[in-house]
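Memo to structure team: turn this sequence into structure tokens by end of day. - J.P.
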Amino acid sequence: MRIVLVGPPGAGKGTQAAFLAKNLSIPHISTGDLFRANISQGTELGKQAKAFMDAGDLVPDEVTIGMAKDRMEQPDAVGGFLLDGFPRNVSQAEALDVMLQAEGMKLDAVLDLEVEEDEVVKRIAGRRICRNDSAHVFHVTYAPPKAEGVCDTCGGELYQRGDDSEATVRNRLEVYHTQTEPIIDYYKAQGLLVTIPALGEVSDVTKRAMDALKK
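Reply from structure team:
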């Protein structure tokens, strides 16, 4: 299957993408992973992306599209893939359609993880990270530490990342509404959109998505 996963920041796209890709036996292609891989490997696209990022500029669509195209042409993606973070806007969605049509392929579904804005803010702004090990993550509501501000695992100080502040989260949501949300209507017009309520246990959300795909 060829699937695109969309949804606001904090909707759980990365978590769901990993589970869905495993269940469907297809690779999870994340924009973040694409950037890191191309930059670390020193590819031409990676060098271009790094130059823009180092200057504090957005990476142009054509660079992102080029990375995605290269990844989708790898042998493990021949039988399908799950795209997470791409396409990010309508221009990228149109480019993806052109790429697939050139290979005689098309998308099977676009899964939209639906979460209320206030819940997104609550999820992200409540996150706390250990200063000693960023893999130790807690949440003031959903996964609180035994002692406030102290990591259960190593005793390190817990802190809120700057990009997890409520103001930053709401700004990220505004960017999402402006740039990415229009692709929902784009795919709805193609009859590809499937809306998945993303509240509840991770396994429940995964089951809803898998059940929707079976239909």
